[in-house]
Amino acid sequence: MKLNPVKSSNEFISVLTKDKKPLTIKKSAAMNSALLRKHIEENKKTEEPITLQEVEDKIIDKLWEYLEHVDGHEVKEIEKPLTTNDMKNETDDWSANFVDIPLEDLVNLTKGASYMGIRTLVDLCCAKLACMCMDKSEEEIFNVFNINETLTEEEKQRLREENKWIENNFD
Question: How many CB atoms lie within 10 A of CB 98?
Answer without folding.
Answer: 20
